[in-house]
Each structure stands twice: as structure tokens, then as C-alpha cells.
From TrEMBL:
Membrane topology category: Multi-pass membrane protein
Domain of life: Bacteria
Pfam families the UniProt entry points to: TauE
Membrane spanning residue stretches: 6-28, 35-53, 65-87, 94-113, 133-162, 174-193, 199-221, 228-245
Recorded family membership: Belongs to the 4-toluene sulfonate uptake permease (TSUP) (TC 2.A.102) family.
Family matches, as InterPro entries: TM_pro_TauE-like, TSUP/Inactive_protease-like
Signal peptide extent: none
Protein location: Cell membrane; Membrane
Name the record gives this protein: Probable membrane transporter protein
Gene Ontology CC: plasma membrane
Keywords: Cell membrane, Membrane, Transmembrane, Transmembrane helix
Amino acid sequence: MSGALIGFTGGVLGIGGGLLAIPLLGLIMNMDQQAAQGTALIMVLPAVLMTVRQYNQQDKIDLKAAAAGAAGSIVCTWIGAQIALGLDPSRLRLIYTGFVLFIAIFYIVQSQWRPAAGGGPKPRRKTQDFHKGWFALIGMIAGMAGGIFGVGGSVLVVPILTTVFRLTQTGAQGLALTMIIPGTIVALITYAAHGQADWLLGLPLAVGSIFLVPYGVRLAYALPEPRLKLAFACMLLVIMVLLLIKV
């Protein structure tokens, strides 16, 4: 049941549910931050694959841009994971909390922003308008974040894709998730190799998570973009509170 609800949340917000799973594993199962991140990755991988499939059915993802981002993410994910595994769990949790707060504040501002009178919103653009090297750079950013925090690479790059590249919110979420698939595999292997992944707990969560992903994606496309961003921000604030409870 918990896995299904997390999968639904991930489908709506394009984050695979991992950001929510990590603080819950720490709070309920009393896991260290690294173990919670590694276990969440077991659940995240199939949920991300399912979510990407659903997003692609709604609006075709630019696979060339995603491949460029994935190439950039792989090495940086491994580097980020090595950094995280060497940190004190409490310090890593505080860093993770600050990361979540920053993204939440950004989305609250974005959801409330209105264009000045007489000046409409800037037109949306497509991935084909940009050189693929830019997506490789974004993939490196996503990979580093995903390696350090276990998940969250897509959460970090979605604001870049919506503000700098001016993609739609749902388009950015689908592209970002597609970029991080190889990096997520690298992160899971790295955390598991260091004994920081509980497969007996992660696999049932993974099975549960995939059932409600399609419904979450449908809701994401049904919601107005400002409301989707506000929902994203509110969920991140809830996650931050859960992290602080554990600290």
C-alpha cells in the first residue's frame, strides 16, 4: 500500500516517489540516511521506468536529448554516490533537507508568479531548439545530485528545463526522468555494493509503486501548470518536515 501511494505521488510529480520514500524509511524503519537512499533506489527504478513510459504515451519524449543527458549523468552519479557514502549520516540528512527546501521555495515562487500587465508569458520551446551538449551538461548536474542524494536528480533539473529552456512542466518532468534512468542504475549498484540497500524491503515497495503510477501521470496532465508546481512545492515541504523529525 505504501509503495502504491509513493508510486502515485511520483507519477504526479515526476520524481519516482523516491524523495518521499527516503524520509519515510528513515523515520519509520529507523534507517541511516545512506541505507534509506539505497533502499529507495530499489523502489525508484521500476517506478521511474513505468512513469517514463506513461509520460511518453502522453507526449513523445525527445530520446536524443534524453540520451545526451543520460551520458552526462552516468559518471557524475558514481562520483556523487562515493561522496555520499563517505559522509556522516546525520550531516548527509541535513544537506538533503537543505536541498529539498531550496527546490520547494523555487516552486512556490514559480507557482505564484504572474506576468506583468501587458506582457504575456514567454512562449514554450522544444528540445529540438537546443544543442544536445546542453542536455549532457544538465545530465551531469542530475547525476551528481542523484548520486549524493540517492534520488532527486530529476527534481533539480526540472526547474532548469522549465525556466532556462522554457519547456512545459510535464515535458520537463518526462525528459528529466528519462535522463536519470542509467544514472539510477549506477547509483543502485554503488549503494548495494556498499551494503546500503535492503532488498527484502525495497522489492515489495517496488511492486506496489508501479500500480498507481499511470493514474498519477494522468493527474499531472490534467492539472493546470501553476497548480502542479504548487503541489510539487507542498509535497517537498512535507518531505522536509519528515527529514527534520528524524534529525
